[in-house]
Amino acid sequence: MLLIEVNTTRIKELVNLLKPYKNTLKTLYKRDPQYTAIGELLQTRTCSETVILVITNAIVSYQLITSGELYWFNFSKYFKENTSNKYLDLFKTFLSTYSPRLLAQKLNRVRKILESELVLELSKDPLKYCNKIAKLVEKIANTLKVPPFSKTILFAAKMYGYVCDLCSTEPNYWGLSIPLDYRNALLAMMSCIISISEPCKDTYMCSRILVTRKYFRIVQNAWSEVCRELGITCTHLDTFTWLLTGIIIKTQCNLEKARSQLKNTLGIDLPRVLLEEFTKCGCL
After folding, report:
1. pLDDT tens across 247-260, in order?
2. CA-to-CA dists, residue 152 to 106, 109, 148, angstroms
3. Comparing C-alpha atoms, which of 9, 116, 102, 97 is closest to residue 60?
4. pTM for the whole thing?
5. CB 140 within 8 A of CB 162
6. Do residues 283 and 190 touch, judged by C-beta distance below 8 A?
7. Fewer beta carbons within 10 Å, N or C terminal of the chain?
8. b vs e for 137-173, b when ≥16 Cβ sit within 10 Å of the residue's Cβ?
9. Tens of pLDDT along 118-139?
């Protein structure tokens, strides 16, 4: 059995390094490719339609065959071009093409959401939960009969907040945990806020272990402590950590290339020393 430990001293160190960039972290979501994809979708869909489509897509955003960024670009393009309101039929075709793994399980989730009272609520008042997104998390979790701290539930809440913002209503993310996926688990290890009792020979596999039911709340709570110390929502922090880790993976831990991509694609000019701190305990 692995012993997973949270390094509170390391959390404080990272928070101090991030404090000068606090305002950047709070506004970075506007440069998130997923935010851009939802904005594209709103060109042909109403706020009401977009809310339903985005939440439904978010709860099946797992076991992807492409990067998350590309998957959401494909989602936006497909539902922008196919403007039917027969959502279940559209999702059957879309998922069969762009996310076929565990297809039956995903379509079961799609049906539960589309047939729920929540969708009826949102079709009449799509921005109802913008100022109480934690309540929306409870509603989605109850509909799917899963814990409210599950990754896809929290991710759906984040994407819903993006729609709120794009539909001119400020989202309230306070009280939400970080959606813990492979990227955030990996960064927790690389940045040393999480340590594992046994030497990790395969960072990829160790990160996969951290997102399993047995351990993921430990890692999620570690990130929650970062959010509390920094004074920002975990949803805003997630935008940074998720995009940062994606770039580190893409550049294969070449920190100069990662720094350049952060600047060119997201407009963030971070010093190399900060990237070194986020990969202090090893990389891929």
Report:
1. 999 999 999 999 99
2. 12, 11, 9
3. 102
4. 0.96
5. no
6. yes
7. N
8. bebbbebbeeebbbbbbbbbbbbbbbbbbbbebebbb
9. 999 999 999 999 999 999 999 9
All structural domains of the chain:
4-29+176-278 (1.10.1670.10), 30-166 (1.10.340.30)
The two three-digit tokens of residue 170, written as one number: 């400020």
Give the pair of three-digit tokens for residue 22: 């606090």
